[in-house]
Design goal:
The complex is a heterodimer of chains A (407) and B (586). With 407 residues, chain A is α+β, with helices and mostly antiparallel strands. Chain A has two domains: 197 residues, Rossmann fold (3-Layer(aba) Sandwich), CATH 3.40.50.300; 116 residues, Beta Barrel (OB fold (Dihydrolipoamide Acetyltransferase, E2P)), CATH 2.40.50. Chain A contains ten helices and 21 strands. In chain A, strand 5 and strand 6 form a beta hairpin. In chain A, helix 3 runs parallel beside helix 5. By secondary structure, chain B is an all-alpha fold. Chain B has a domain of 205 residues: Orthogonal Bundle (MetI-like fold), CATH 1.10.3720. Chain B has 26 helices and two strands. Chain B has a two-stranded antiparallel sheet with strand order 1-2. Chain B is globular, with a radius of gyration of 26 Å. The termini of chain B are far apart. Classes of the chains: A alpha+beta (407), B mainly alpha (586).
Chain lengths: 407, 586
């Protein structure tokens, strides 16, 4: 994951260097209710608060129907929430208590739609020039408009297409036009609504890389909605994992992956092994959980669990070690290998010990054959411990602005 | 100066208007238009209902009693039911068969799908009925005469026949020709979205193609067939031109024809009985609708998902070519043949099976259409009403469709429902209501073009609304949203995005309304008179006068007008589709 590692540092410095203390986007206590056909109410957005610093690339990640797109559309002004506030660059665009709700055309932000939403009756040039002609208070001469449009088209790598109609172009090209239209007005915030889901895998990968480098270069703040965790990991400086209208966790990709805040997040991002049990010992240096499959030791005390609490031990498949001889690690089991799946970069071992099953990823593929038994171990440092059931209450935010500043 | 000190308007204050609560003048006008449109349907309908119980300011059951006392009432109802049921069943058989052949088998030909739905537009029912009369009248019918000549070669002599259009089978046949497109379009759409793997699974389970068709395919598209059947029943009860031209000479009276006779060809008009008979039409169409809803609810019809994967069509082997021939024959027979008869008779100058091929001329056409003052007037009126009525209808419908699409509130949906409601009521009844309400005092619109305009708009409102919906939905949600996010005001979004994208759809919708209005006979027969003649009324008048060459000439002109408009609009739509803008007719 070299891309996102490099990415995290850049905006942080930019944010520090910025003179305005205002976040690019600030959402506080936002709620939106939907009424179902049967009359019951659903909270599509349930008490969501977060800040986007200038120059950050925030990905809203979640399964379909979790409310991430609704959240994006409320920020764009395409849907009206019921409570809360939305500010962009310090300007209140929505505030339920003060009766403020700016229409989308007065919000001064750009958005890229899932279907690209290019107007089929306008040429590429006219599509891209449209925001310049529409924005209130922007009066540009014809030459300036042409200049800005050509710059935007060059930035996205399609300067030669300006005379064409969207219907004559490929999906990837249409995507670039949509991007140029979002860039042309130099807005501070650009919203992306799953823009890469309609192009094929190869083009998607290419566009993703270009998008990252363009965003880092031009420095706009991005809010990007997707259900694809790989995409989220690659693009984001921070990820907001959305679960049923709430933000389940808000942090850097590394935090989200290695220190998931809830079992939901742990399961949604990557593969995970889980063992439920009860806390048997707990002190400042770590804790021990009694599970039906023996005791599991961990150094992770962040959940603040006490002796007797129901807990779950979680570890990633690549953190497990498979060996023929008994290892010295505290957490070890002698298990039977049910199946080996060779994936290329690694081999996945499905192992079993009575009721307990686990997945293991090893870079080598000749360790053990299916049907044999072997030792499985995981270091206490690699075991994450969380309460057995996810909390129902407010959002769990890790790596918030405050946390980031001290990092 | 100082006493008018006001707080400076803050920037937040300017933004502070909640979007939902903003009612622009644009919206207000739209709502007003929608309410007027609904009113011109609801109020006349209400008038019909009131008219049943309330005569001269007194409650009475007299109209009902008099309606029930119509001596041949059972016969009238039975006739109507036979014609509607017979033609609907025939239409379902033909329509489903054509749809299946054309969508699912190796015999498929795109031309059927293109041509069939256009039939009622190319050849308005009144012209079709006249055309078939020219072809199959027992004595002078062209086909009959040619058939007699042909068998004469073998020494078989016949004076009349063998076919007679003025008969039960003739009436049912022509009804069915016009009902088939309803069934075909719905069945073909269902077949297109039907997952063919269901058929493949049936074949792999050992079922023959026929068994697969009966056990798997037909049940799956039953809702589509049901919708087509309902449309065909609705069409049948309200249809006036075909039974009046084909059924009346055969002595087959149906409800719709009797209603018009009571209103316009009886003196004094027996309005109350006409209203009472209209109630039967409402009743039967309502029953058919309720039945369909029940059937759909009872059966567990799985929602067909998206577009099924294209699979190999059923191979018909050696049957492919004969079946193709039959399909072509059907299209040619149902459309081209009557058109041909109309043109030949009008060019010949008089109706005779002995066509003087070398003496065909436009003289008769000229005499019938251009030299005749009333016909000229009728043509001008019809064209004017078609252009204006079509424009008013489609623009009003577009405004309402846009409003409904943008607002999505309960009120907006109610407006939408109201504007589509005439589709559920028979045309005949609405026209009667408008006559009752507007012809006499205080409005006194009887015999004016205004009452015709109102009648046409009220009658064809659902078609306008459906065409406008299609135009709005073809724009989608994201294109206008992208415009708003780009900073464009609602007005600018409307002018720059909605309008250019909707124009092709609206032009197609206008053409549809124009053709319906110019070829209309229902409202024309009830609302037009010698003071405000229109083509439909003139055709009826000429038919009653027995001048067949003139009738053919008039019908030919009608076909020419509709065909021209249709072709021009289709060419325009095709040109626009280069930009991915689509427009559909029908």
């Amino acid at each position: 994951m070299p891309l996102s590692t490099a990415a995290t540092n850049a905006p942080a410095t930019r944010a520090n260097a910025a003179t305005t203390p205002e976040p690019a986007v600030r959402v506080t206590a936002l709620r939106k209710r939907f009424r179902r056909e049967d009359g019951s109410e659903v909270l599509a957005i349930n008490d969501v608060s977060f800040d986007v610093d200038p120059g950050e690339f925030i990905v809203l990640l979640g399964p379909s129907g979790c409310g991430k797109t609704t959240l994006l559309r409320t920020i764009a002004g395409l849907e009206t929430p019921d409570e809360g506030t939305i500010e962009i660059a310090g300007r209140a665009l929505y505030d339920s208590s003060r009766g403020i709700a700016a229409p989308p055309e007065r919000r001064g932000i750009s958005m890229i739609f899932q279907s690209y939403a290019l107007w089929p009756h306008m040429t590429v040039f006219k599509n891209v020039a449209y925001p310049l002609a529409s924005r209130k208070g922007v009066r540009l001469s014809k030459d300036e408009v042409a200049q800005r449009v050509r710059t935007a088209l060059t930035q996205v790598g399609i300067p030669e297409l300006e005379g064409q109609y969207p219907g004559q172009m490929s999906g990837g090209q249409q995507q670039r036009v949509a991007l140029a239209r979002a860039l042309v007005s130099n807005d501070e915030v650009i919203l992306f609504d799953e823009p890469l889901s309609n192009v094929d895998a190869k083009v998607r990968e290419q566009l993703r890389l270009e998008l990252v480098s363009m965003q880092r270069r031009l420095g706009f703040s991005a809010l990007f909605v997707t259900h694809d965790q790989t995409e989220a990991m690659e693009l984001a400086t921070r990820i907001a994992v959305v679960d049923s209208g709430r933000i389940a966790q808000f942090g850097t990709p590394q935090e989200i992956y290695s220190r998931p805040a809830t079992r939901y997040v742990a399961r949604f991002i990557g593969a995970i092994n889980e063992s439920e049990g009860v806390v048997a010992q707990a002190d400042a240096s770590g804790l021990v959980i009694d599970t039906p499959h023996g005791r599991i030791a961990s150094t992770d005390t962040s959940a603040g669990l006490e002796v007797g609490d129901a807990a779950v031990a979680l570890w990633r498949p690549e953190r497990g070690v498979l060996s023929a001889s008994e290892p010295t690690t505290v957490n070890r089991w002698e298990m039977t290998v049910d199946a080996t799946l060779f994936v290329g970069s690694h081999t996945e071992y499905l192992v079993r010990h009575g009721e307990m099953t686990a997945r293991l990823w090893s870079p080598r593929f000749d360790d053990v054959a299916a049907g044999e038994s072997a030792w499985v171990s995981v270091r206490p440092d690699d075991v994450r411990v969380l309460p057995a059931s996810d909390p129902e209450g407010g959002p769990l935010v890790t790596g918030s602005v405050a946390t980031r500043a001290t990092r | 100066m100082t006493d008018t000190l006001t707080r400076p308007p803050s920037r937040l204050g300017r933004l502070g208007r909640l979007r939902e609560k903003r009612t622009t003048p644009f919206d207000a006008v739209t709502v007003a238009i929608a309410l007027i449109l609904i009113a011109i349907v609801i109020v006349p309908l209400g008038r019909v209902v009131v008219g049943m119980f309330w005569v001269d300011g007194q409650f009475t059951t007299g109209p009902i009693a008099r309606t029930l006392a119509v001596p041949d009432l059972p016969q009238l109802i039975l006739n109507t039911l036979i014609v509607v049921a017979g033609s609907s069943i025939l239409a379902v058989v033909i329509g489903v068969l054509l749809a299946w052949l054309n969508e699912r088998t190796t015999a498929r030909m795109g031309v059927i799908g293109d041509a069939l739905p256009l039939l009622p537009f190319l050849l308005p029912p009144v012209a079709g009925a006249v055309g078939w009369t020219m072809l199959l009248s027992p004595r002078a019918g062209l086909l009959n005469a040619w058939f007699r000549d042909f068998i004469g070669i073998f020494g078989i002599e016949m004076e009349t026949g063998p076919f007679n259009i003025n008969s039960w089978y003739g009436l049912v046949m022509v009804f069915a020709f016009y009902a088939v497109p309803f069934v075909y379009m719905n069945a073909a759409a269902s077949l297109r979205s039907f997952d063919t793997s269901l058929e493949e699974a049936s074949r792999l389970s050992g079922a023959s193609p026929l068994r697969t068709l009966v056990k798997v395919t037909l049940p799956a598209i039953a809702p589509g067939i049901g919708a087509g059947l309902l449309l065909s029943i609705w069409f049948g009860f309200g249809m006036f031109s075909i039974p009046s031209i084909i059924g009346t000479p055969a002595g087959i009276d149906v409800l719709s024809v009797r209603i018009v006779q009571l209103l316009t060809f009886t003196y004094p008009p027996e309005t109350d009985v006409a209203v009472g008979l209209s109630a039967f039409i409402v009743l039967f169409v309502g029953l058919a609708y309720a039945l369909q809803v029940r059937i759909l609810r009872k059966g567990r019809y799985a929602t067909l998902t998206g577009k099924g994967a294209r699979s190999n069509p059923t191979n018909l082997g050696v049957w492919k070519w004969p079946l193709r021939g039959l399909m072509l024959l059907y299209v040619a027979g149902s459309t081209l043949l009557p058109m041909f008869a109309l043109v030949i008779v009008s060019l010949n100058g008089y109706w005779t099976p002995k066509i003087g091929w070398d003496s065909l001329s436009l003289r008769a056409l000229q005499a019938a259409v251009i030299d005749d003052r009333i016909t000229r007037e009728a043509l001008a009126n019809s064209l004017g009403l078609g252009v204006v009525g079509g424009l008013i209808g489609i623009i009003a419908a577009a405004l309402v469709a846009l409003y409904v699409a943008r607002k999505r509130t309960g009120f907006a949906q109610a407006l939408d429902l109201g504007i589509k409601m005439p589709a559920a009521v028979s045309n005949m009844v609405i026209a009667v209501g408008i006559l009752l309400l507007l012809a006499g005092p205080p409005f006194g619109l009887g015999g004016t073009l205004a009452i015709l305009l109102i009648g046409y708009i009220a009658l064809y409102l659902p078609q306008a609304s459906i065409a406008a919906d299609a135009a709005v939905s073809s724009v989608g949600k994201e294109l206008p949203e992208a415009s708003a996010v780009s900073g464009a005001s609602p007005l600018r979004t409307f002018v720059k995005v909605y309008l250019p994208l909707m124009v092709p759809g609206l032009v197609a919708g206008w053409a549809l309304l124009f053709i319906r209005m110019v070829g209309d006979l229902t409202a024309s027969a009830i609302l037009a008179g010698t003071g405000n003649p229109v083509v439909g009324f003139r055709i009826l008048e000429v038919f009653n006068g027995g001048s067949y060459a003139l009738l053919a000439a008039l019908s030919t002109v009608l076909v020419l007008i509709t065909a021209t408009v249709l072709v021009v609009v289709m060419v325009y739509a095709r040109r626009k589709s280069r930009f991915g803008i689509t427009a559909k007719i029908g």
